[in-house]
Amino acid sequence: VQLVESGGGLVQDGGSLRLSCAASGYTGNINAMGWYRQTPGKQRDLVASITNDGATDYSDSVKGRFTISRDNAKNTVYLQMNSLKPEDTAVYYCNAKWRFLFTARDYWGQGTQVTVSS
Question: If DSSP codes are grouped into helix, strand and coil, which group holds residue 88?
Answer without folding.
Answer: helix
